[in-house]
Design goal:
With about 180 residues, the chain is mainly beta. It is built from 1 helix and 9 strands, in the order E-E-E-E-E-H-E-E-E-E. It has a domain of about 120 residues: Sandwich (Immunoglobulin-like). It is globular and about 65 Å long. It starts with about 60 loop residues before the first strand and ends with a strand.
Length: about 180
């Protein structure tokens, strides 16, 4: 359906029509959409909170971070990088639900997490990818769909320290978090 892999999530609706009213005849194990489509609208959700722009240039280190399936945790609790370098972070989501990755300023996890939880009641929360528009957010991916991945290029902060990261889908941040340890 798409010429290349989507980097923004895709919202899908349900159509329960049967017989010759179906859009196509897909095997149930592969595709569950049944019905026809008229005057459709494709809406992709894109992060609009404006975390730092992706740096350009040489990648000093590549890190693969995976969501643990059915556990709501990342596979690594501690990532390390040298101050001022550029890293490429590949976030893979084999889980059944959407997750994101948000890098946060030192000692700001609780504030950003609480702000993310508030987005669950905001009608624009999903459009914001559940990433709060606050200065404590350094970098963020959009929500990554099940079986999806997202590559984020990060200019590591110049100040050494422990920078928390978390999934800010409402409620996830409390257990789905870790530390990016920035060293000299």
């Amino acid at each position: 359906m798409f010429a290349k892999e989507l980097v923004a999530p895709l919202r899908v609706g349900v159509d329960n029509l049967k017989g010759d009213q179906r859009l196509s005849d897909y095997p149930d194990s592969l595709f569950l959409l049944r019905g026809n489509l008229a005057s459709g609208k494709l809406e992709t959700l894109k992060s609009s909170n404006g975390p730092a722009p992706a740096p350009t240039g040489t990648i000093d280190k590549t890190i693969v971070l995976k969501v643990l399936k059915d556990v709501m945790k990342f596979d690594k609790q501690l990532l390390t990088a040298k101050a001022g370098t550029t890293i490429q972070l590949i976030v893979q989501n084999p889980d059944f639900m959407q997750h994101n990755f948000v890098l946060i300023k030192i000692k700001s996890l609780e504030k950003v997490g609480a702000d993310a939880d508030k987005l669950a009641q905001d009608p624009n929360g999903a459009k914001l990818q559940y990433v709060p528009k606050v200065p404590e957010v350094l970098y963020a991916t959009p929500l990554i769909n099940p079986a999806g991945k997202f590559t984020l290029t990060i200019k590591v902060p110049a100040t050494p320290g422990d920078y928390p990261y978390a999934c800010t889908f409402p409620g996830h941040w409390r257990i789905m978090n870790g530390i990016l340890r920035v060293t000299k």
